[in-house]
Task: structure prediction
Amino acid sequence: MYLLNAIKKLGQAKMLMLHGITWGCLLAILPLLPMSAHAVGDPEKEDLKFGFIKLTDMAPLAVAYEKGFFEDEGLYVTLEAQANWKVLLDRVIDGELDGAHMLAGQPLGATIGFGTKAHIITAFSMDLNGNGITVSNKVWSEMKKHVPKQADGRPVHPIKADALKPVVDQYIKEGKPFKMGMVFPVSTHNYELRYWLAAGGIHPGYYAPHKGDISGNLKADALLSVTPPPQMPSTMEAGTIYGYCVGEPWNQQAVFKGIGVPVVTDYEIWKNNPEKVFGVSKSWADKYPNTHIRVVKAMIRAAQWLDENNNKNRPEAVKILSKSQYVGADYNVVANSMTGTFEYEKGDKREVPDFNVFFRYNATYPYYSDAIWYLTQMRRWGQISEYKPDSWYIDIAKKVYRPDIYAQAAKELIKEGKVNAKDFPDFAKETGYKAPQKHFIDNIVYDGSKPNAYLDKFKIGLKGKNSI
Result:
């Protein structure tokens, strides 16, 4: 089966049929076909459907498709935009989708049973950074009174939520709720927005699933609610929310439409934070192990292509992403962040070369410590209602994040000469834990091997035996 598919991929099938080629001739041309296909084992399932949300960080999927990396692995993929993150997850769980571009917290949330319960795994991290927090023009006009200025009059970055606190306090004083949007309860955006707000003394509220309250607004100074990413700008323009945290291009869209100002990027909240992953159900991965490895191989190559030679391929990537079937935003809107810049206030465009990272800094490796950070934030804000020992966090991380599968895929690509070993972790020594990370907006150091000690450092949020 792989032989025929490989011929199709090479565009030779029609020609061979026209000439009445025999099986003997087919075998004769076998040496011309990619031999890498036989190292892992043929894919158990060749026709695949993957889901995504219209965000620039779905790029590895689009590039793997458009550049033929999936077909190189004998995979024939359909990419399908999904209405929202819940629909996407449900369709992976019920088998309508073979896998999907997911929020990094989704496989973890599903596996521990916050929301829909299902064992989802990831063997591939899709990117680092890529999000921003945007506020309406009205809120920004009040905020910037409290933001220091550079000599040229532009705001000093990073802008902390300390500048937003007087605005929120005024809303509270007037009896008005201060409303902000994020994309999903277990999204990076939710946790980054909460982190930024809490670091500025603004309480983002608690969840209490054990009491049937999953609003996330208990004891909140700022009320956070779910809005699908493409709808963020219009929802803010309508006055339903006063700001939001979302991925690109929906922060830059607010700038282009003149309705809001991105005040901080997630790179400034947590430098080189993991953002999206590629998720599949555990049962799917067990049923189609060769297929899974091949998917990861194709996506590693796509991520490498996106970052290689100092992002030289990004303009081509922007053209791909601008297509209606992918992100469907104007080229200039997508390019504003994908090509190494980010625009805050209109005209205040700054160099941010690492705003979107897809491959460098081991961006594609699924680190246990990344998973544990998300779990600590679930505990901090009450999505995990009760105290859990450090060993629990580690066990869940190892259940969901699968660097073993990633390593198989990367080693095959290294063997095939498609990638260089120096661009990957040393698999023989890798523990799955990054060194303690200190590049957070509040300067609190995160050590993934000590989750409870990390939680103890925060003034706002649950820790130890605390509960709601």
The radius of gyration is 23 Å.
